[in-house]
Amino acid sequence: MTPRQRTRARGTAGAGPRKDTVHSLDLTPAPGAAPLRVMVMAQTAAEIRAMLRNGEQLLLTMVIPVLLLVGFSAAPLVNIGGGSRVDFVTPGVLALAVMSTAFTGQAIATGFERRYGVLKRLGATPLSRTGLMLAKTLAVIGVEVVQVAVIAAVAAALGWRPAGSVPAALALILLGTAAFSGLGLLMAGTLRAEATLAGANLVYLVMLGCGGVVFPLSAFPASVEPALRLLPITALTGGLRSALGATGVLPLGAVLVLSAWAVLSLGLASRTFRWE
Amino acid sequence: MESPAVEIIDLVKRYGRTTAVDGLTLSARRGAVTAILGPNGAGKTSTVEICEGFRRPDGGTVRVLGLDPSHRRLRARVGVMLQAGGVPPAARCGEWLRLMARFHATPLDPAALLERLGLTAHARTPYRRMSGGQQQRVSLAAAIVGRPELVFLDEPTAGLDPQARHACWDLVGDLRAAGVSVVLTTHHMEEAEKLSDHVVIIDRGRVVAEGTPAALTGAERQLRFRARPGLALEELLTALPSGSAAKESPSGHYIIEGQVAPEMLATVTAWCAAEGVTADDLSIERRTLEDVFLELTGRELR
Predict the structure, then answer these.
(1) Which of A27, A89, A156, B103 is most buried when burial is the number of CB atoms within 10 A of its CB?
(2) For A151-194, what is each residue's pLDDT tens digit?
(3) Is A180:A257 a contact under the CB 8 Å cutoff?
């Protein structure tokens, strides 16, 4: 036990706060920032905690993807044109999971942090804005690791046998994370928190429906298909399907679409983001 | 020579067409408690938020610990308590304070700080479930957990009950004793009078008076008494030395200002006898800071 802990224990053992505890506070100035690594890790942990504690976020990031995976793999709800249903659905659900965390979850959480003055308050701490953004990115990746593990485990139980290239899939997920984070932060940094909440959910639904997540693109009229292919979710879904399919190649088209979205959205977000 | 904690010269801040701060000049000494006092909309928060680096001034110069307010190094040296918010509603207050502590090299022990502010029992309570007064104390704790050399407290006791207010005042006193410079805004007169070494009264974005609480309230004393309303004070004034002033405010409460000497007392009581009234609660008092404040900033509602 350190002396400090001992004082604390003594202070709380008696009835009510004791004077000696009060005196253990040394208010003499001793300013100094913690090392960047420590600050970023502390903030990352706080962000992950907040995400895993939030019921709506968990519904979005864990429950819905897993339900879709199980439902669409088990029941012949859509015509995927031959082949294993779980092999078709799993890459789509992985893409959906990335979008739900990097885009929807991050947009809503950051929008409300802005509204509640949390971003402003953090701006007055030694943690720099770069450090904060780094922490947010690490937290998103941390949650994605959990999502991918859960989804892969459920899919494997349903008979998913991924072929192809895991590094290619990971590269696509990272690119997708960048693109979706940029879009999420763009919304969170410019719109009111309520508008972000509504908008992020709407975009989530539209992308879920039109991005080839569980309904194949072939289900849409040929005239809209080229436009749908330019959506980041379509690029990620299609890219993951081909990376985790028999060929295992990193599809250039998907990489280009995701890179373009990432550069555009992150660039715009960094120019327009309002911290208050 | 060491620079002041805060030095503001001719500060101007506009929001569209309104000028919130209009050529404000003030200086806050190191190791002292400086209170910025003013009615709502006087420009207190704008001024403090410019010092905290949240807003850029439209004119004038501001130096905080000798540096430009946007200087990165200040973030570790300056503690900030916002007027409202700043804490995630779902965060537990103990976790939030530990996070704030981890941003600093040699912070206070968060648990000891919670204890000191009477928040130990609420360490696991989410911020949004706390009362307004508890939330204020969490923000105050977060402002000082990094052991800053200067703290800005924007209305630290707004909405606090008397116990919490006194706890906050004690803490500010201890910060001062430890050598921390404190700049706070308030419209609580007792707070400014009790806590501060230096009071700056601002109105419409400008400094209207400043000094120690004693200097502001002045050596000037006043005679106060109660009597039936509507006495003819003009008559009394002619009997008093020139430069005296007499007013009835509020109704039935009389205040006589000027050279408070035995002769004045005699004149007033003689006049009361002539009027056939008994002066109740007759007393000689110094002006309060509130008197000074109302005199300088007017009585109309904003």
Answers:
(1) A89
(2) 999 999 999 988 889 999 999 999 999 999 999 999 999 999 99
(3) no
**What CA–CA distance (Å, rounded) separates A235 from A225?**
12
Q: Is A25 domain-assigned? A: no
Which chain B residue has its CA at the smallest distance from A125's CA? B75
- Best of B49, B55, B115 to substitute, by most chain A Cβ atoms within 10 angstroms, is B115
A225: in domain: yes
Where does the pLDDT of residue B299 fall: very low under 50, low under 70, confident under 90, or very high at 90 and above? low
Residue-wise DSSP of A141-191: HHHHHHHHHHHHHHHHHTT----S-HHHHHHHHHHHHHHHHHHHHHHHHHS
Task: Give the domain range for residue A258.
Answer: 35-272
Total of domains in chain A = 1
| B86 → closest Cβ in A42, A117, A128 | A117
Q: Calculate helix-pair angle for A106-115, A193-210, nearest 10 degrees.
A: 170
User: Is residue A12, in this structure, part of any structural domain at all?
Assistant: no
Structural domains of chain B sorted by starting position, each given as residue range(s) with its CATH number in brackets: 6-215 (3.40.50.300), 219-286 (3.30.70)
Query: Are residues B145 and A72 in contact, defined by beta-carbon separation less than 8 angstroms?
Result: no
For chain A, the residue count is 276
User: Could you give the count of Cα atoms lying within 13 Å of A272 in the half-sphere of its Cβ?
Assistant: 16
Tens-place pLDDT, residues B169-182: 999 999 999 999 99
| Torsion of Cα atoms, B35 then B38 then B43 then B49, to 10° | 30
Kindly provide the ipTM of the predicted complex, given to two decimals: 0.85
Bridge partners for B151 per DSSP: B79, B182
Residue A23 domain-assigned?
no
Name the residue in chain A with its Cα closest to that of B172: A27
Would you say the pTM of this structure is higher than 0.90?
A: no
Q: What is the distance between the alpha carbons of residues A224 and A96, in angstroms, rounded to a whole number?
A: 21
Q: B7 forms bridges with which residues in the sheet?
A: B27, B63
A50 reaches B (C-beta below 8 A):
yes
The number of residues in chain B equals 302
Work out the minimum CA distance from A263 to partner chain B, whole angstroms.
28
Contact B120 A17 (CB under 8 A): yes
Cis omega (within 30 of 0) on the bond before B148?
no
